Amino acid sequence: MRVMAVASVVALAVSACGSGDDQASTTSSTPARTSAPSTVSPTPSGRASGWTLPTSGPAWSPSARYTPPPAPPKTAPRGLKLGKVDMTNLTQVCEAYLRTVNAWDTRIDTHPDDAGVRAAKYTAGVLRSGLLSPQPGGGAGDFLAAQAAGKGYSTVSNLYAIEGDSTPAGEQGSCGYEVTTSVLAGDGKKKAARDLDVITTLSAHRQPSGAWLITNEESD
Q1: 1 falls within a domain
Q2: Which of 9, 24, 32, 220 has the most CB atoms lying inside 10 A of its own CB?
Q3: Strands 11-13 and 32-33: what pairing?
């Protein structure tokens, strides 16, 4: 996948101890996290990317231009479980965005950036434009690994709010999270790739309607 308006990106590889079962609604409370893991390694993206490209399976060209689907699939991704999102609630909008942008499903999607198209409704400005027309790039290894594992999918298995980093202030706001994304096989139980752990900060702007929209994402 890809990150728009991102200052720096650091992915934290964690052991495969999480599961795809933790898919709570955005209306549920998110546990606070006061400190971030310290082991870091660079990757080309702040979202679910950076897996090793499989040596077998369908060919994938990182330079290929992404073409959004003509219409969104009627079936929701298996890894995306959301309740009704209150767009006037900054926390709910931030969590809905993070869960959506990291949830693709090889049964309904043809490219990992299809998740970004679904997440664009929570964004505005340059970030929205980038999600709808992403630049060619890598990040396809996890998608291919999931395809090879019985039409698998990705899901946010853990989402921790960073204490003191969620601030609605007037028309501007921000939310900080530690996000763990898991790539599961088609049975929803076995891992198709290692988990990816990322620390990210989202900037948001309150619209005249009162709704919050994400305008920038920075991962480190």
Answers
A1: no
A2: 9
A3: unpaired
Measured CA to CA, the distance from residue 108 to residue 87 in angstroms comes to 26
The whole-angstrom separation of Cα 69 and Cα 132 is 10
At 1-37, the pLDDT tens digits run 433 333 333 333 333 334 334 433 444 445 544 333 3
Q: Which residues contact 165 (CB under 8 A, 6 or more apart)?
A: 174, 175, 176, 201
| Residue of 209, 207, 201, 197 whose CA lies nearest to 156 | 197
Print the domain residue range for 161.
11-51+78-219
Looking up residue 190, the CATH number of its domain turns out to be: 3.10.450
Kind and range of the H or E element at 96? helix 90-101
Query: Which element (helix H / strand E) includes 202?
Result: strand 196-206
CA–CA distance, 200 with 216 (Å, rounded to integer): 10
Residues 95-130: tens digit of each pLDDT? 999 999 999 999 999 888 899 999 999 999 999 999
Q: Is 65 a domain residue?
A: no
Nearest-angstrom CA–CA distance, 113 and 132: 9
DSSP 123: B
